[in-house]
Structures are given as structure tokens and as C-alpha cells.
Amino acid sequence: MNQDQLKQAVAQAAIDYILPHLEPRSIIGVGTGSTANFFIDLLAQHKYDFAGAVASSEATAERLKNHGISVHDLNSVQELEFYVDGADECNKHLELIKGGGAALTREKIVAAVAKTFICIADVSKKVSVLGEFPLPVEVIPMARSYVARELLKLGGDPVYRTGVVTDNGNVILDVHNMHITDPRGLEEKINGLVGVVCSGLFALRPADVLLLGTSAGVETLVREK
Ligand code: 5RP
Predict the structure, then answer these.
(1) Whole-model pTM above 0.70?
(2) Residue-averaged pLDDT of the chain
(3) Which atom of ligand 1 is nearest to the CA of 31?
């Protein structure tokens, strides 16, 4: 199986996971990226079984609307049973690095609201220690150099992602060479830097379920609470 087939398989597994729970009033949180796109395309086949979706990016909102799925403002949503999204890296504790697609802040907000965060990823994303994938950090533009200096002190090598402006009008620093042995502690430290909007570490709010695509099939990992 190639990587796209693995992404397709985990997207289908997410559909199978949520389908029995969908009701006409259900709103689903939907993530961003190529794996999430497979999910959106499959979700469209069931669009009459639920009320609509909350999107974690403008790109996802556009794709949902193109399929005829109604997109809701998170502020008008009382309850979000599921959030389904991909990841750039995941570990066995279902802690993640996200933000390769620059949508990390909205992704983290939707994940915070959702009762169950289902991460869908192919096996190439699974690591024993997070940090090989450069950690995205969304920063208020005027704080970029200051935050970069502070991230250097935390042991990383921040690189400005040129030409990218997030949906929130901010910039991204990708922090290279982090060997993240304490994801929760690092997330707290980065959150504490003035000018940081959000880091792509999802450790304080990890996934609840990881559907991992392997050549032997889709593995389901559930986080112990
Ligand atoms: C976007 C993300 C994506 O979930 C992450 O980059 C994975 O993308 P893909 O499914 O294309 O590999 O965090 O901000």
C-alpha cells in the first residue's frame, strides 16, 4: 500500500468509527491536510446523516462547502462529539505534532472543544520521541524575532516559514532539532512566551483515539485516561 492508500484507509476507519454515533443534529469537527481531505471526501457520502461541520481552516471550510456540507461557526455550536484530523507526528501516548499545514491554532481550538479527538495518520507519522518533524509555532508577526530568540534558549533552531500567513494573520516559526522528551512541559513553556499564539504540540490535549494506517491494516490505539 502506498501512503495515499494508507491515508484513505484511516479516513474510512474514522468514518466507520463515528457513523454509528451520528444523529441529525450532530456537528463534526474536521481537520486540515491531505489525510483530513480523504476524510472529508468520504464524509460527503453521509452528509444527510448529520447537521454539519466545524472547520479547522479556510481550506477545509471550502472543501466541505464544495461537497454541500454546511459549515458552522464554532461559537454557535453547543457540543462537538468528534474532531477528526491528521498529524505530522504521533507517539504512543497519542501526543502529537501538528501544524505542517499552518492550521495549528484553529485545530487546537476545535480539539479543545471536542469530546473525542480522533487522529488519523499513516504509520510514517509514528515516532518514539517527538521532534524529528520541525515543531510549528504560530507567532504574532511583530514578536517573530523575540520568540525565535526564546525558542533558541529552549534548545531549538527556529526557522521562519517565509511566504506563509496563517488564517489568523500570523506567521509560523518551524523549530528544528527538538528532541521532545517532555512534551507537556515544553508545550507549557512555549505557551508562556509572549507573542506566541499557539504551538503545534498537542500534549496537554492529546488525541483520544489514534487510527494508524499500516500495511497490515488500521491499528486502533485508545488513550488511557
Ligand atoms: C495541518 C496539520 C495536518 O494535520 C498535518 O500537517 C498532517 O497533514 P497530512 O495529513 O497532509 O500529512 O496539522 O496544520
Answers:
(1) yes
(2) 97
(3) 4
